[in-house]
């Protein structure tokens, strides 16, 4: 069985399977352990027509620590429930039930973008802004999309079809600071048909005015549409039939070097294969999965080891 005691003896394999070092995992587990009893009572008290007292009924085969290991292995490798059941000696139905029951608690204990965004959008003084955006006062914004199975409904096929990817996809808008910390993420999954800039116009983050946003050419028009709300920096677009000057090429090169931060942040998210492979779960679970993965990425940046 693929349990904590066995994995923790091999730190390299542990990090490869979980995405965290042993120390990072232990720190997260300590926080989850403190909240677990209260969380379980609240979860089991949800049904008003409950007849059996809390604590009765089927018990989990795995303890809390190993159930968290199972969730993180599933997120990192995105293996099937059949293989997960083989690794943890559980039935497929138990795998599904165990993951669903503890996902919300894991999400509560991670620095997800929503928690950080509540702080950053209220920053007032330059000292407060510098704490989150460093001396450059720069934020990096970009979108990423992930393939989903072809919907059966014709209307949904049209809504989720991405002309860029030539597949049915969902999109997320991310904002990161210079450290790569994800400080904002769209709350709901966006359909693949929507253009990046269209998503931004409806769900853009409210950042301090001294912070400059770095964008790619997918957000062309932002300087015209949001002149007062947000300082923005875009690469220079080549006109049809013309070539960029050497100065303009150098400017675009430096712009790309700075913007690589958001590309690396998205790359860290994609290392969790649940955010990279075809998303096989129900779409209503997509936001929770992306929140947890973003929180894990943020936790690694905030707690290096």
Care to describe what's here?
It is a single chain. Helix 6 (92-108) packs across helix 13. A hairpin with a 5-residue loop joins strand 3 (167-176) and strand 4 (182-185). The chain has two domains: 4-108, no CATH class; 113-302, no CATH class. It is an alpha/beta fold and 305 residues long. It has helices spanning 4-7, 11-18, 22-44, 64-77, 81-88, 92-108, 113-120, 126-133, 154-160, 196-203, 222-225, 246-270, 286-302; strands spanning 138-147, 161-162, 167-176, 182-185, 190-191, 212-214, 231-233. The chain has 13 helices and seven strands. The mean pLDDT is 91. It is globular. Strands 1, 2, 3, 4, 5, 6 and 7 form a seven-stranded mixed β-sheet that branches.
Give me the secondary-structure topology:
Elements: H1 4-7, H2 11-18, H3 22-44, H4 64-77, H5 81-88, H6 92-108, H7 113-120, H8 126-133, E1 138-147, H9 154-160, E2 161-162, E3 167-176, E4 182-185, E5 190-191, H10 196-203, E6 212-214, H11 222-225, E7 231-233, H12 246-270, H13 286-302
Parallel strand pairs: 1-6, 6-7
Antiparallel strand pairs: 1-3, 2-3, 3-4, 3-5
Helix pairs in contact: 4-6, 5-6, 6-13
């Amino acid at each position: 069985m693929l349990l904590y005691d066995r994995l923790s003896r091999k730190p390299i394999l542990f990090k490869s399977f979980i995405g965290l070092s042993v120390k990072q995992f232990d720190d997260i587990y300590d926080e989850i352990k403190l909240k677990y009893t209260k969380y379980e009572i609240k979860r089991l008290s949800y049904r008003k027509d409950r007849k059996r007292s809390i604590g009765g009924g089927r018990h989990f085969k795995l303890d809390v620590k190993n159930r968290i290991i199972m969730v993180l292995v599933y997120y990192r490798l995105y293996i099937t429930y059949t293989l997960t059941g083989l690794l943890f000696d559980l039935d497929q139905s138990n795998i599904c039930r165990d993951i669903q029951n503890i996902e919300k608690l894991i999400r509560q204990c991670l620095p997800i973008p929503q928690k950080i965004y509540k702080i950053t959008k209220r920053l007032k003084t330059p000292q407060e802004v510098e704490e989150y955006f460093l001396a450059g006062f720069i934020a990096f914004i970009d979108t990423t999309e992930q393939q989903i199975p072809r919907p059966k409904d014709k209307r949904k096929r049209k809504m989720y079809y991405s002309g860029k990817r030539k597949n049915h996809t969902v999109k997320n808008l991310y904002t990161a600071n210079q450290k790569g910390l994800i400080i904002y993420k769209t709350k709901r999954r966006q359909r693949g048909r929507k253009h990046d800039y269209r998503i931004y116009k409806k769900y853009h983050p409210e950042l301090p005015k001294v912070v400059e946003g770095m964008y790619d050419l997918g957000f062309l028009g932002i300087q015209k549409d949001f002149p007062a709300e947000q300082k923005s920096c875009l690469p220079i677009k080549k006109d049809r039939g013309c070539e960029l000057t050497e100065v303009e090429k150098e400017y675009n090169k430096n712009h790309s070097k700075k913007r690589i931060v958001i590309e690396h942040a998205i790359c860290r998210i994609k290392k969790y294969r649940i955010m990279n492979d075809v998303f096989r779960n129900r779409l209503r679970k997509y936001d929770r999965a992306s929140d947890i993965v973003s929180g894990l990425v943020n936790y690694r940046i905030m707690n290096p080891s």
